[in-house]
Amino acid sequence: MAVLRSASARLLALLALTTLPPVLEAALSTHFGLRSLVGLAPQASAPLPFAIFHDLRWISVYHHSWPQFAGELIATVLARGVWATAIVLVAWPSFAGRRPAAGRALLTGITGTAALTVFLLPWAALSVAISATSLSWLFIADVGVVFVLVLVAQRAGLVPDWWQGLPPPATVLWAVVSFLVLTVASVVLSAAPGPSPIVLAAVAGIVNGWLWRRLLSAALAARIRLVRVPVAPLVAVGLLLGIAPAGFLARTAVQAAEQPPPPLAIGPGGRPPQALIFVGGYDSVGDGTPTGGSPQVTDSIPFEMFSYAGLDAGGRPLPYRSQQTQQSLETSAKLLDAQVAEVHARTGKPVALLAESEGTLVVRTYLATRPHPAVVAVVLLSPVTNPSGAAFPPAGDGHGWGLATGAQLRAILTVASWSSGLPISIDEPLIRSLMGSPQRYRDQMFCPVPEVRTVAFVTLSDALTDRPGNPLGVPFVLVVAVHGDAFDRSRVQRELVAFLHGATPRTTGATLYRTVRAAAVAWQAPPLRISLFSSGPGGYETPRCRG
To answer: Using N-to-C axis directions, what is the helix angle for 231-241 and 136-152, rounded to 10°?
Structure first.
């Protein structure tokens, strides 16, 4: 230890501790075909709460049994505790006096790491659910909770009394700076070509070393207010208990989804030459009328609602309930096939499909699995950008990737279901069908389909659950809105109608979209390699459009 008595030696040791982990992760991600995940690498040596959240997301995806999950958790707590202790000892500022004894520092590091693991584990599990379903509103909630936990627990592993009192303003500042730095680093590494992300990961590690020194100095110099109040544990428990009332928000979302789509305003060219079928999203409802219950006036374009319940004996759409949107995508695609054939035969016109949210997955499944000569145009509205990124086995299975994560999600959704009265489940056929055919849905939403003109109207929030490498292979229009809000916009309707008349919309916002999704990688769960899915093909290569 004598060699570490000099400031230069301690600085070199600090930079080694903060540089090697991101470099190693960037190299391994590139080697194993997970190139779109290099944006996660800087967090491998970030300040402790960020590093723990990074580790827990990998563990939540890549474990196959309960013993493996427990072993990975224990190993992570011990390894991160030792690593954090080493950083504290080499980065200890001179103004703070003598460094703590190694044993005491190690106890502080391991207990702080263990507490952060308990605080963050449910939210790491939720990030896996987001990877499987690509739900942007869940992403916003999950990252928001993690950010609050980071603010109140930033001193964990650094000082013994980290859990007491309000977080000092200085540590809050450095937590915010760290969050921004890691987000920007994700954008830079994701956009870097070839092997350069490995070099950039080393640069990110050096920046992390600087952040560690600043944070440690701020934590040691801070004067703590409300020192007798266990603020960090109270906030962590409060956020977890907040899952219960969040169920009421789910009910509000369902009520919004049950509203019929707005009328489609007619354009200067009059009614388009196609018969239109609107494929609604998750938890939508249909009353069986040709326009889904929306009053159509003289200046609007009629369209028929797709029915998740199928057709009656006369070939008309049956009324359907929100629960029927939870059926498998294969079942819905089969029903859409029948409805397209019926509409084409009845009208004698080619068919255009307008699909929103889950409806875009139904349309994608239909186009990928069945002949579709009658369909000439597809409009994707608020598409589910990149699902099928994770797996968890069905309830009752004792093995499978994401086993413990699935159990955590079932517990979370049980509470949310209790408060909302809604049948929310990760075992519903829709979710199982996403995980059963990842090669059909991952990196495929914006791929062109031969002989079918396609345009995508994508909201900015949808970028949060996409990943770099997902090809934007069709005309792409970015809408500054939240998921599900694209069809209501008059600009979208004008461009949609022009598209149906043969115009090609000008791609807009693609650069902003790519930037946002690259930034979001820093806070997503890593996807499970397709080769590890029970029904997936061998290997996960660079995404490419198939067909």
So the answer is: 160
Write the burial class of residue 296 (CB in 10 Å: 0-12 exposed, 13-18 middle, 19+ buried). Answer: middle
Contact 474, 456 (CB under 8 A): yes
User: What does each C-alpha distance from 341 to 187, 222, 344, 345 come to in angstroms?
Assistant: 45, 70, 5, 6
Please give the Cα distance from 193 to 449 (Å, whole number). 28
Give one DSSP letter per residue of 363-403, joined into a string: HHHHHHHS--TTEEEEEEES---S------PPTT-S-STTH
Distance CA 472, CA 234 (A): 44
Q: What is the pLDDT of residues 83-136, one digit of tens each?
A: 999 999 999 998 888 899 999 999 999 999 999 999 999 999 999 999 999 988
Same domain, 9 and 76: yes
CATH number for the domain spanning 411: value is 3.40.50.1820
What's the angle, vertex CA 534, arms to CA 528 and CA 540, rounded to 5? 40
- What are the mean pLDDT values of the chain's consecutive 10-residue runs (547 residues total)? 70 95 94 85 97 98 96 97 96 89 95 97 95 90 94 94 93 96 96 91 97 95 90 93 65 57 81 94 82 56 93 92 93 97 96 96 95 96 94 89 94 74 78 90 93 95 93 93 85 92 92 96 93 54 51
Residues 6+ apart with CB under 8 A from 62: 401, 526, 528
Q: Are residues 420 and 374 in the same domain?
A: yes
Q: Which of 169, 64, 54 is nearest to 391 (CA)?
A: 64
Measured from the Cβ of residue 455, the count of other Cβ atoms closer than 10 Å reads 22
Q: What are the tokens at 165?
A: 């009192």
Answer whether residue 76 is part of any domain: yes
Shared domain check, 448 and 503: yes
Q: Given 241, 274, 299, which residue is the final one in a domain?
A: 241
Does residue 440 belong to any structural domain of this protein?
Answer: yes
Domain of residue 346: give its range: 257-532
Residue 70 tokens, joined: 């427990």
Q: What is the predicted pLDDT for the residue at 505?
A: 87
Cβ-based neighbour number of residue 295 at 10 Å: 8
**pLDDT at position 547, please?**
42
Q: Are residues 265 and 235 located together in one domain of the fold?
A: no
**Which helix or strand (DSSP H or E) is residue 265 part of?**
strand 264-265
Number of domains making up the chain = 2
Q: Within this chain, do residues 261 and 213 fall inside the same structural domain, yes or no?
A: no
Average pLDDT over the chain, rounded to an integer: 89
Same-domain pairing of 262 and 390: yes
